Amino acid sequence: MYYSLDGSNPSLPYSEPLPLNSNTTLKFQAVDLQGQLTPIYTEHYVFDTQPPQIIFDLSINQCTSEAFSNLNISGTASDDSPTGLRHLHLQIQNGDFFLNFDESALFNLQPTWSQLSTTSPDWQFTSHQELPLEGFEGSFTIRVRAIDYAGNTTIEEVEVLALRKCS
């Protein structure tokens, strides 16, 4: 077996595992006992170490009556690497409580992430349920998490201060 790591025709004899730790074009070719060669095969290895980027915008009235609804959060997420964006999630926290997006109880003590669409770089979340302020006044932390296909993760957060009932 012969190989090359620079895209040239295979000329190095294979004798031990190859040290692949950066973007590499591997070419390889086998030879049998009679000296007959197989075709040259090519594999491309891409190492993605860059996390995705997140930009988001928050639209909320920080002073409201008994509850707030139609919380609008939008933004963009991108991944400049060849692997691309795999998952995008949203989390809303108030002290020890997390907004529960899929269950009957509105808040719980377990961190909960809601899946956002990753069909384009633009994303949006609009709360269609009223979020009561009773017992939850104060600041809310809103986080967006992006994960690419290589597993690189970015979390961006914004704190909404002084969410309170209007006087």
Your description of this structure?
It is built from no helices and 16 strands. The protein has strands spanning 2-4, 12-13, 24-29, 41-45, 53-59, 63-64, 67-68, 72-78, 85-94, 97-99, 107-108, 114-115, 122-126, 131-132, 138-148, 153-165. The strands form four sheets. Strands 6, 9, 10, 11, 12, 15 and 16 form a seven-stranded mixed sheet that branches. A hairpin with a 2-residue loop joins β9 (85-94) and β10. The chain is rod-shaped, with a radius of gyration of 25 Å.
Short description:
This protein has strands at 2-4, 12-13, 24-29, 41-45, 53-59, 63-64, 67-68, 72-78, 85-94, 97-99, 107-108, 114-115, 122-126, 131-132, 138-148, 153-165. Strands 6, 9, 10, 11, 12, 15 and 16 form a seven-stranded mixed sheet that branches. It contains no helices and 16 strands.
CATH topology-level fold name of the largest domain: Immunoglobulin-like
Specify Rg, calculated over alpha carbons. Answer: 25 Å
Instruction: Report the strand count.
Output: 16
Helix content: under 10%
Number of domains: 2
- End-to-end distance: 79 Å
The CATH C-level name of the largest domain is Mainly Beta
Q: In what range is the share of β-strand residues?
A: over 45%
> Count of helices?
0
User: Would you tell me the overall average pLDDT?
Assistant: 80
Largest sheet: 7 strands, mixed
